[in-house]
Amino acid sequence: MRKRRKGKLESVGKILQGVYPAPNQLEAAKAFGWWSRSVPPRILEHARPVTLSHGVLIVHVSSSVWADQLHYLGEDLLQQLRKHVPHSGIKKLRFKVGPLPDIPKRARVTPPAPEPVRLASLPEELGRALSRIHDDDLRRTITEAATTSLARTRKKD
Q1: What totals of helices (H) and strands (E) does the chain contain, helices first?
Q2: Residues near 130 by Cβ (< 8 Å), separated by ≥ 6?
Q3: What range does the domain containing 46 cover?
Q4: d(Cα 48, Cα 35) in Å, to the nearest integer?
C-alpha cells in the first residue's frame, strides 16, 4: 500500500486555470454561465453564446428576427455581462443565426416543506375567522397556508 502524498489545498479557480489552457477560456466559461443563469428564459430559448474571441462574444440565435431583436437589447446585455464578469474583456456582442448549443442542466434543490402546525395551536382570532368561512375548500386552503406559515415562523425562532 502506497502512502498518500500530503499537499496543500488549491482554489477551484486555480485548478480551472490549469484545465483551460488559455486564460480567456475561463472568462468565456464565466460569461456563458452568466448568460444561461441570467437572461430571461424566452431569450435563452432562442439565443446562446458560442465563442469569445478578441473581445467579441458570438451569440447564436434561432432566426434573423431574434438577431434583430437582440441587437436592440445588446447594449444592456453587454453592460450586465461586464458588470458580472468584469475580467472577460468583452467589448462587443455579435448575434448570428446558427445552431444553439445545449443548455447545461442544473440540479434544482427544493427545500423540504415545514411540518404544519396543529390546528389547535392556531391563534384564537384566526380560528374564529376560519369558522365564519362557509366554503369548506377555501377554509381548508387558508388553514393549510396559515399552519405552514406559522411553522416556518416558529422554525426561524
Answers
A1: 6, 3
A2: 122, 139, 142, 143
A3: 19-97
A4: 7
Instruction: Write down the pLDDT at residue 28.
Output: 83
Whose CA is closest to 52, among 101, 86, 93, 99? 93
Q: Rounded to whole angstroms, how far apart are CA atoms 151 and 59?
A: 46
CA distance 149 to 141: 12
Q: Which three cell numbers stand for residue 21?
A: 489552457
Q: Residue 104 is placed in which grid cell?
A: 447545461
CB 55 within 8 A of CB 89: yes
Instruction: Kindly state whether residues 91 and 27 are assigned to the same domain.
Output: yes
CA–CA separation, 120 vs 73, rounded Å?
Answer: 55
- Same domain? For 30 and 90 the reply is yes
Residue pair 78/39 in contact by the 8 Å Cβ criterion: no
pLDDT digits (tens, 9 = 90+) for 83-112: 988 888 889 999 999 999 887 666 455 566
> Which residues face 96 on adjacent strands?
60
Q: Is a pLDDT exceeding 70 seen at residue 137? A: yes
Q: Is 96 helix (H, G, I), strand (E, B) or coil?
A: strand
Q: How many domains does the chain have?
A: 2
What pLDDT does 133 receive? 84
